């Protein structure tokens, strides 16, 4: 089941962090590493720091965008250490480990980590169902990338060791990230055509709607109903 949970590193700048993250993963039994638009490819330094986890690093999938990394995932959790203007459903590391293992029985799960200095962008965080923050010492909360990966991988392993969760029923299946993104695009197009949002300023409203639907976690069948409603609205609208 642990092979259903992937670690996604976005735009990593230091190759050593890739190797250290691979080592942190393997010690906890995780092997699926995805590098999104890395600033450099894994080099000798990365493999040296990977130590006995060079296989995890060598088999890492390299993709150009976060969308490519999470397209088939039914659960996406993004790490965030900063307070954001738009609040989002939050988890602590233990809750993130719990959800990852339970939902990993049903579909791929992604734990997403941002850039060493600036983390994930707001747009990237809005592609996540939940955000997770590590409750470090507020007087010195600086965790390097590999430490953050190790913390979440540990929580995943501890939950996995408690025993695998019962497999969810088929009707509780959640849509993939790609299916959700398709819904958001469909929703935005429909709201533009009805005049509910302006063509040149859709961002603020769409951000709030993304938060609403991410919080609601519609099932795949429910998402199909919503898309059917949008299609019906588009067909029923009288042309200008």
Describe this structure in words.
The chain folds into 2 domains: 1-163, SPOUT methyltransferase, trefoil knot domain (Alpha/beta knot), CATH 3.40.1280; 175-233, Helicase, Ruva Protein, domain 3 (Orthogonal Bundle), CATH 1.10.8. The protein has 10 helices and 7 strands. Helix 1 (15-27) links the parallel strand 1 (5-10) and strand 2. Helix 1 packs parallel to helix 7 (145-161) and helix 8 runs parallel beside helix 10. The chain is of the alpha/beta class. It has helices at residues 15-27, 44-50, 54-58, 66-70, 93-104, 122-125, 145-161, 177-194, 203-216, 220-236, and strands at residues 5-10, 32-36, 61-63, 75-79, 90-91, 109-113, 130-132. Strands 3-2-1-6-4-7-5 form a 7-stranded parallel beta sheet. 47% of the residues lie in helices and 12% in strands.
Topology:
Elements: E1 5-10, H1 15-27, E2 32-36, H2 44-50, H3 54-58, E3 61-63, H4 66-70, E4 75-79, E5 90-91, H5 93-104, E6 109-113, H6 122-125, E7 130-132, H7 145-161, H8 177-194, H9 203-216, H10 220-236
Parallel strand pairs: 1-2, 1-6, 2-3, 4-6, 4-7, 5-7
Observed structural traits:
240 residues, alpha/beta, Alpha/beta knot, Helicase, Ruva Protein, domain 3, 10 helices, globular
Can you give me a brief rundown of this structure?
This protein is of the alpha/beta class.
